[in-house]
Amino acid sequence: MKFYEIPENFDAEIENYEKAVKEFTEGSIPKAKLQSIRVPFGIYEQRQNDKYMMRIRLPGGAVTPDQLVHISNIALKHTKSPLHFTTRQDVQLHDLLLHETAEIMKELKESGLSSRGGGGNTVRNILGSYDTGIDSGEVFDISPYVQALTTRLIAESDSWTLPRKLKIGFSGSPEDKGLATVNDLGFIARKKDDGKEGFSVYIGGGMGRKPKVGFQLYGFIDTDRVYGITRAVKNLFDKYGNRKNKYNARLRFLVEKFGREKFVKLFENEYKKVKEIQYPPLKIIPALKSDTGFIEIPLFLGILEPGKAGILGKIMKRFGEDTLRVMTNQNILIRNIKEKDIPDLVSELKKGGIFYELPHFIARSVACAGAETCRLGICLSRNLLKAIKDKLDKNNFDYSRVSDLSLKVSGCSNTCGHHILADIGFYGIAKRSSGRLLPFYQFVMGGIVHEGITRLAETIGSIPAKNIPSFLHELLRFISGSRMEGEDFKDYLERTGKEKILEIFNKYSYVPPFDENSGFYYDWYDDKLFSLAERSSGECSAGLFDLIELDLKTAEQNLGLAEKAYDPSYHRPEDENMVKNTVLSTCRALLITKGFEPKDDHEAVFLFKEHFIGKHLKEEWRTVTDKYLKNEEISEDEAKGLFNEVKELYNSMDDSLRFPELDETEKKGTGGEEEKDYKVCDFRGIGCPLNFVKTKLVLETLNSGDKLEILIDDGEPIDNVPSSLKEEGHKIIKRQKEDGYWRVLIIKGED
Amino acid sequence: MNLTEEQIDRYSRHIILKDVGGKGQEKLLNAKILIVGAGGLGAPAALYLAAAGIGTLGIADGDKVELSNLQRQIIHFTPDVGISKTISSKNKLEKLNPDVNVILYDERVYADNIIDIINDRDYDFIIDGTDNFPAKFLINDASVLLKKPFSHGGVLRFEGQTITYIPGNTCYRCIFPELPPKGAVPSCSEAGILGAIAGILGTIQATEALKYILGIGDTLKNRMLIFDALEMNFRTVDIGKSPDCPVCGNNPTITELKDYEQPVCDLKKQG
């Protein structure tokens, strides 16, 4: 039995991959080229150079006992590291060697498994309610659709070349355990009054850096429209998706760009075209009637030793093929067994060291891999969860009153730990204190997933990583004591409000200076000072943006410009000179884009002076940095001026973290508003490529060396026109973002 | 000359090209090209040149549209059967691009009219889209004598050949000094052609004309392009100017034009 069919051309694809690996090893293709081929196969380089992770596709978390045994054997052969079951219901092999990855793919294929689409801009593993088929409250079993759609999509080559990843989820009931309302595209089983089965359809949801709840596209569709709708979404995404900026590329950004109404219209256009083509229907293999017995095997941190996975597979073979599902909380659900078999099975699993008693709260807690192996990770999320467990266990915490609460931790803002859906969640960020970086988390609370009322958790504030276990201990004790018997957490929050929680939280947000307690500057169970230095810029820019924005926000707060309340985590008793601190944060903000991590305040301002003033910022600002370095009085206006300049510079940064450079006259620093001695042409409202054509025609009337300023729209125009002009030999000396458009200053090149 | 908004839009894909730009487009709009023969080669050439915005397009042809032409002469449509090829062409070209001034010469070219036709608008470039050797030699000789560049083209079955004459360089007679002897040209039964072959060659001729007007790239000057579409094999053969060429050599024997006899089979319907 298999839960999806691997397409015929997959052997050829593996061969191509193998060839690319060989070419890379021989040095004939660069690393970046291999990366672009490797990642769509679900193979990522880990934080440790030359170690690789492979993510294997399990639709709806379904894996047969035979397949699990097979995975276990492969893992034992190629890596000693544990398997990691993920929140996307797939399974990851870690610490692999690059040159063995193609062989592993071939081995996986033998049992009908593949890592294709485990990463990159592809159709990712399709989620499904983990208890579909055995949940008495569900509308119908959605597994056949998850599996049939997987088989279809992985056979379509355009599933691997999308503008960004496309995530799909199916739920068997409005409880939405397949996370349909927070995926790019989601289907929730629904039955009409006359008994006709179908789905409600959600679109534009997603987690990641800017999470969003999807909106309802259809209240009801017949089951035979699942593929057509998916096909149309793929076409729509492919056609309009932003391939340039991967941080604004997910489907939900198209909803944002066009507005819901136009987005739906565009979708309908695509859907109409799809209907005309008459694709063959999905091959739906009806689900068999299942036994209702189940056991949830808690996997702390989603980890299982390969040997134990093999034992689990061998045991489960006796009970049937459709008996295992990976859950979105990183546990494994044993399902489809007879109730009477449960006690014996549990004791057998215990004997195999697979099943052990864990408090429900801990067993269902989630942490992504975090900075331990992931290149995007900022904090060691798994270690935090361990620290929390240690703290609670050591204090003999009574878990009974919080067993229904969910705790989820992500190592960065990319929601892999699903913190945004949790009752209590944390995600890793970096902050600064005493001029040093330290591990922090944002604390979020009150996430709900349920059709119609799905709500993302609300951000409460930031807290040093080292304070979280103590904070959580106090918080959970408070909740245990103040929550009524059987009271839903949502109702509890509504009833009690957040004030008391904030009060507890604020006690733990303080960071001592480095000299006083350096422990805060290390992440959990780590012996190295916290740093972002090992992060390579290509794969981690999201974290960089957070850090830059943090500095700019700090500067703004110091200026008294912030609308939000003063963030207590910044309060240092010695911080009396707000103006000076504004200058410091302002100077430091952009240094990381050039790879600088200054050791102290003085160095930060010095580096800024050396690398930004006279190059990206006018000479006149040098007086401000000089005053800072000489410890002279700086006026508030000077600080504010510098801050605004830097903020503007940040806004004009391109995707490769580069800034526009000053032209010769600006470098000389005439000061004040300069007279425009060149022509300005307004090409706003003119699309691509006509805006470029018009610019070119004007340039033809000028002499080389002459300047021309054009006004063009944000989006495609600013992405395309300047680069096209550069290709023609003209120089772009300034790009300045205005409200919804850009000013681009050009120097005409040689004819 | 300033491009209108409509022209900027219409020719935007030209203007985007670094080698064309607004100035190049203006050259095209000011250019005058004569197409001799509105048949298999002339049809695609005329359509592309009109689309490109060639300001003046002369069409010389004395034939009427026949049903058997439609298999390859794509400027003519079924309802055009029976009307003159020049009128039929003009109708299409003006619809395609109103910027183009289409000049018609509803006659076959002969020694006694070709000079007048070329001089009528002082054409910058000539496209030989004819289907017979007398006309091809006539166009060559006239172009050499008037120092006009032209594109020679010929197609048969699945093959084609083309060379671009630029005054002072290899001409058609440098390669083929005299008309082929009787019997050397294909008989009627052998004179078939796959319609698309004419499209390939006519389009290459149009490209040569555009390059010449724009002054970009290398034309097929002093080299002949020969292709075989069955093998899909394209090659160019370098051919230098012949000092013994009867029309452009050191001691030319042809100093005025004359008409040649149409050999054996009337190939006009092949073109």
Itemize the secondary structure elements and their pairings.
The complex is a heterodimer of chains A (about 750) and B (about 270).
Chain A: H1 10-25, H2 31-38, E1 43-45, E2 52-56, H3 65-78, E3 83-85, E4 91-96, H4 101-110, E5 127-128, H5 143-154, E6 168-171, E7 185-191, E8 197-203, E9 215-222, H6 226-240, H7 251-258, H8 260-277, E10 293-297, E11 303-304, H9 306-317, E12 324-326, E13 332-337, H10 342-351, H11 360-363, E14 366-367, H12 381-394, E15 407-410, E16 424-433, E17 436-445, E18 458-464, H13 468-482, H14 489-496, H15 499-507, H16 537-559, H17 578-589, H18 601-611, H19 622-629, H20 636-651, H21 664-668, E19 679-682, H22 690-700, E20 707-713, H23 716-727, E21 731-737, E22 741-747
Helix pairs in contact in A: 1-2, 1-4, 3-9, 6-8, 7-8, 12-13, 13-15, 16-17, 16-20, 17-18, 17-20, 18-19
Chain B: H1 5-10, H2 12-15, H3 21-30, E1 32-36, H4 42-51, E2 56-60, H5 85-96, E3 101-105, H6 114-120, E4 125-128, H7 133-146, E5 150-156, E6 159-165, H8 172-175, H9 195-214, E7 223-228, E8 233-238
Parallel strand pairs in B: 1-2, 1-4, 2-3, 4-5
Antiparallel strand pairs in B: 5-6, 6-7, 7-8
Helix pairs in contact in B: 4-5, 4-9
Spell out the key features of this protein.
heterodimer; A: 751 residues; alpha+beta; five-stranded mixed β-sheet; 23 helices; 16% strand; B: 271 residues; alpha/beta; Rossmann fold; 17% strand; disordered C terminus
